[in-house]
Amino acid sequence: MSGIADIYETVGEVEAGPGLPHIEDASAVAPRDARELSRLFFDRLRDLEEGTHEYQYARNTLIEINLSLVRFAAGRFRGRAEQMEDIVQVGTIGLIKAIDRFDLSREVEFTTFAVPYIVGEIKRHFRDTSWAVHVPRRLQELRVELAKATAELSQRLDHAPTPAELAEYLGISREEVMEGIVAGNGYTAGSLDVPVDEGDESGGASYAERIGELDPALEGVENLHALRPLVAELSERDRQILRMRFGGEMTQSEIGAALGVSQMHVSRLLARIIARLRAGLLGHS
């Protein structure tokens, strides 16, 4: 991961604009002074033209004088395996987003506004990088919901909740619960070098020695699972077109004849449907 210096330009490289104080070492500003200076710089920033030296100076200074917020938020994740420097860098991205979206007219302290952005960016980083096996985003989020629901229901029912009880509590189907439970197994992974049970006929060989070739259809199965909720969101007509084209293997001319439209119109409809599904897949990858 690149250093913080790669995320934004050094303040000293840009001259202070009119109405703004020159700060020699913005990172050394005390938190109490940072709050007052932030109000001053935000007030000036909204009047400056984006892309100018003065705008860049004001924005960069806001980043540096508020880095203490990032370090404060990053402290909540100190027990994680990642280096604290990496966590701070990710949190700094959240700080930058908060600065770009903050408005003094909100009548709220910038610290109150920025911390959720910083923490959210760090949590998003762990969510996207902590999984040992890649699973779709919706299943990552479902795993978190299942964990919370399991803890809540275990206390309420005085026993581990069944998939049916979890489904009723979350308002989803039992099949979705089972899918989330199975996907949760991808959060951590064991070593393939661990020997198989000694009582096994393999004579203590490792799991790695028993793995066959990569199944070329595996990616197709994953794509089908990811496509299922996206297809369900389509209109009945769009789903019918997909069934005829890819299920019935009908030509575009045959589909057009069945629907009473031209082959060219079917081509445009298919292109639109496929583009929508592709966008959905990319959004969940």
TrEMBL record:
Residues 86-99 form the RNA polymerase sigma-70 domain. CDD domains: Sigma70_r4. NCBIfam families: SigBFG (TIGR02980), sigma70-ECF (TIGR02937). Pfam families: Sigma70_r2, Sigma70_r3, Sigma70_r4. Gene3D superfamilies: 1.20.120.1810, Winged helix-like DNA-binding domain superfamily/Winged helix DNA-binding domain. InterPro entries: RNA_pol_sigma-70_dom, RNA_pol_sigma-B/F/G, RNA_pol_sigma70, RNA_pol_sigma70_r2, RNA_pol_sigma70_r3, RNA_pol_sigma70_r4, RNA_pol_sigma_r2, RNA_pol_sigma_r3/r4-like. The keyword ATP-binding does not apply. Keywords: DNA-binding, Sigma factor, Transcription, Transcription regulation. Transmembrane segments: none annotated. It comes from the Bacteria. This is RNA polymerase sigma factor SigF.
